[in-house]
Amino acid sequence: MSLYAAYLEEIAARKSEGLNPKPIDDAGLTLEIIEQIKDTAHPHRADSLQFFIYNTLPGTTSAAGAKAQFLKDIILGTATVAEITPEFAFELLSHMKGGPSVEVLLDLALGDNTEVAQRAVDVLKTQVFLYEADTDRIAAAYKAGNPLAKELLESYVQAEFFTKLPEVEEEIKVVTYIAAEGDISTDLLSPGNQAHSRSDRELHGKCLISEAAQQEIEALKLQHPDKRVMLIAEKGTMGVGSSRMSGVNNVALWTGKQASPYVPFVNFAPIVAGTNGISPIFLTTVGVTGGIGVDLKNWVKKLGDDGKPVLNNDGNPVLEQKYSVDTGTVLTINTREKKLYSEDGSEELVDMSASFTPQKVEFMKAGGSYAIVFGKKLQTFAAETLGVEAPLVFAPSKEISHEGQGLTAVEKIFNANARGATPGKVLHAGSDVRVKVNIVGSQDTTGLMTSQELEAMAATVLSPSVDGAYQSGCHTASVWDVKAQANTPKLMAFMHKFGLITARDPKGVYHSMTDVIHKVLNDITVDDWAIIIGGDSHTRMSKGVAFGADSGTVALALATGEATMPIPETVKVTFTGEMAQHMDFRDVVHATQAQMLAQHGDNVFQGRIIEVHIGTLLADQAFTFTDWTAEMKAKASICISNDDTLIESLEIAKARIQVMIDKGMDNDVQMLQGLIDIAEARIAQIRSGEKPALRPDDNAKYFAEVVVDLGAIDEPMIADPDVNNADVSKRYTHDTIRPISYYGAEKKVDLGFVGSCMVHKGDIKIVAQMLRNLEEVHGKVEFQAPLVVAAPTYNIIDELKAEGDWEILQKYCGFEFDDAAPKKVARTEYENILYLERPGCNLCMGNQEKAAKGDTVLATSTRLFQGRVVADSATKKGESLLGSTPVVVLSAILGRTPTLEEYKASVNGINLTKFAPPLTKPLDTLSVHF
């Protein structure tokens, strides 16, 4: 069967699902289509023309290469197609975004036909996705005296690719659509269980919110053809939980603008809003696409006569509506005045200055941030080649410096890694900074999108300035189903060729490693001054400063080795008191959130850096805190570590990287060995006193400070989704923290889960020791509810086997993963036994394994959003309660939440993860798990 015949079969199958033909990325199919176009009598010629013009993906796809070459033939007259004139061929090349299209345009621009060359140069003046191979050709032609090369460089110096674009419209009329009340997780916009389809944009778009919501949005567009639909989180924050470029893509697909008439299902510039604004990492993703994020502030706290907030019976502030944004409300955004108005402009509703900073307006004008990043580089190249000074075209980076004010930890890191900033100028929070990225992580459910983004921006190789880059396989580790089998090898092959260390060897030599990506990144981050970008909200390392990012920002970091963002404000977290022997560090994490809310009333962590002075915990254990800061809605977090502790963490990291090398995972440039070298150099700096562990200055300025009283934590803490709260906006947040006694030992637990990035080796050892203890008392352990255990990494399992802990787990398990025969079907029912699952995300991801509908799950993981770990049944809401490992294990054994006395008895003599404030000698406070 020909590729075209197979494509027709696929088209028929998609049509039955209400889908259009899938965009073409394969050169073989494109070449068949081209031959059918050339044959004027071919029965499929008309369709082939449509596919060639409107359904072939641009960038560096092999299809783009075939398309660009055929367009070149048409321009040069070696091929003739009545429907594609040379003028039209140039237009099609102008929409192909770099790679083969730029190569063809340069061939034409530097060729002998002067008329064609001038046309090619005119198109090249509009292009920005040029790489070193392209700019080298232009520079060489200029030096050889080519006048068109000079003309092109002069255009680039003036940044005409940007200045000649239309300005952002002054007024944008919007019609509102309330997607939900309360915080909106990105799971509502792009469900985790549909992750397999994210690279198929039209198919994935079908999962936005619900079919009914999609119909309502379409109806609004028909009723208001001159307006943009603004998607709203009423009484909540939009986009909590993750960056989720697929969520932004879905919103843009239904409500945004088409990027190009010749590129299917790629839309940009969505408008999203929330009563409490947009989650920081999601807002970054909105900006990547040139979209607008609106902080509505349409509900405010009701104040009493004393000027203090009026509280309801639950102790929460009573909210009153400042203005309505009910679905169908027409509003006006004035981009010049930076304000939101009523429909006729007579009433100012909210200031939008934060939505229209000079940099964000540039993204909107250019159709996204990539064009700006590459445009700036192109302008700099042209100016250096011509030996002139580039004019100030782009908005200057905001540089804020306060004389005499010290630096927080994140300010120090940003200053150390800044690029293009004013030499010698010290930058403080609020400054816009272009920074070097040291470590980049791509995870497997967004990786295919990242590869698409790399193809779209014509990138073919990892930036040499990146110290380490890793492609994981953890989000699809649980079930090796047909979707994983189709997507994962393709992703690994692409990323391996691009230059990343990959969890799966495309050549099939080394054993596949499904280790949780955050754990791997935590190990390969070997410098506390590093900046890390990862395609997941839990990119929160305990060394350096890490930012969860969308697939596009990850692609940009991989291609350029840089990221651009403001230096965030910082909240300082310190500890006092003494931790009770029966408490686990996970309870300190939950208590931090609860005590912060009690101290400040509002979430002062949201959108800011949490600088946590936790320096006596090793990297794995400290990661429990930094990981959770995603749920605190923080932008990122930084651990302030003692010298000795940091050295020990780096030694552990070195050993684990060596394991990866021994497995055969290093690449041709020996990236992993390079990381070990960096770690050794850093250890030498610390030991010699040349450069101690990162610490803030004593006179640094913080937005707020939180002091956590360890002595006040006397019983285990649970993060509860509070699914039946009368106030819908209070459901499914991570702010409801309750002591175990709240449940009175009466809360039925249907499933326990010990796993996700929140656990480390010590947690699995706790499971083993609790089984030993209970076996000694009762003779045998009986589970009243299933307990799923998924170690985050293989090296943890190897160490547990060596230390004798894996044996007791095997004794009580009714299922143990087998890499030689991985599960091909997701589990839907659980028995009351222990399940030892494959390392990876498992239940926390929600895209493969799930609890039974309506279950109450008690888990060590991070996600409690509706439908993530457990869906609702027809009669009961699913609940995902989050707690410490010993609480989860005991609850699965009892089939209910325990009393405090039962809990204390169960952990007696077990070495839980201990912590004392850093004033104590480090070695007195370390857990013995390592």
From TrEMBL:
InterPro entries per record: Acnase/IPM_dHydase_lsu_aba_1/3, Acoase/IPM_deHydtase_lsu_aba, Aconitase/3IPM_dehydase_swvl, Aconitase/IPM_isomerase, Aconitase_4Fe-4S_dom, Aconitase_B_HEAT-like_dom, Aconitase_B_HEAT-like_dom_sf, Aconitase_B_swivel
The Aconitase B swivel domain, residue ranges: 176-407
Q: Which SUPFAM superfamilies match?
A: Aconitase B, N-terminal domain, Aconitase iron-sulfur domain, LeuD/IlvD-like
One Pfam family named in its UniProt record: Aconitase_2_N
UniProt keywords (A-Z) are: Iron, Iron-sulfur, Metal-binding
Could you tell me which residue ranges the Aconitase/3-isopropylmalate dehydratase large subunit alpha/beta/alpha domain spans? 428-895
Query: Locate the Aconitase B HEAT-like domain: which residues?
Result: 6-162
Q: What is this protein called?
A: Aconitate hydratase
Q: State the taxonomy lineage.
A: Bacteria, Pseudomonadati, Pseudomonadota, Alphaproteobacteria, Rhodobacterales
